[in-house]
Known about the structure:
Blueprint (H helix, E strand, L loop, with lengths): L9 E5 L3 H19 L7 E5 L2 H9 L3 H17 L4 E4 L8 H4 L10 H11 L4 E5 L2 H4 L3 H7 L4 E3 L3 H13 L8 H16 L4 E4 L17 E3 H13 L6
Parallel strand pairs: 1-2, 1-3, 4-5, 4-6, 6-7
Amino acid sequence: xxxxxxxxRLGLLGGMSWQSTAVYYRILNELVAERMxxxxxxxxxxxxxxxxxxxxxxxxxxxxxxxxxxxxxxxxLEAAGAGxxxxxxxxLHLVADRITAGxxxxxxxxxxxxxxxxxxxxxGTVGLLGTAYTMSAELYPSRLARYxxxxxxxxxxxxxxxHEIIYTELVxxxxxxxxxxxxxxIIERLAERGAEAVVLGCTEIGLLLTDGExxxxxxxxTKLHCDALVAQMLKGTPS
Length: 239
């Protein structure tokens, strides 16, 4: 940040679920305080949507309505003074182009951040855990291929279990030992198939698993995104 400047205000699209959005808010403030010192905290405006409405639209396969809700929210964040916009969820990056339509401020894309991190770490193949929508889509495979990184996903039974745990436990703030054990076993199977690391491609999974607990490194998308967002914010605006 230039001398005398101020951090750029972040507009955060959250509530998908509020559990991980709360983690975003905490990490963003911790990183700003760490890097700026004193009593500094992160200038963040959060638009938290009703996850019940989003989840119902997901089950119905209605992606345009989700995009419309979040595009309206993103425009409101920009109007409220946000100088950069971010989406605090992996799955809805499936329609990021529609969410950001008409914005005149930058959008810091989570999937790009993960691709850059995986490539920088030298991984050639990574596993992916996330919602069924994310794991079954070309979102991660196509985007990470640009960085020379191959993406593999669990088999259909494991995908179903990963998805169920997210929607029945993690988004509700329940982090059971059995869920953790199942996830670690699924990660082991991905490692046996060649995954050198595993992307925690749902922002809630980082609430259940921590890097160092699995047989391969874990790329926590929430932490990676927050780190990149703070770097963007601290480029600052002139005072």
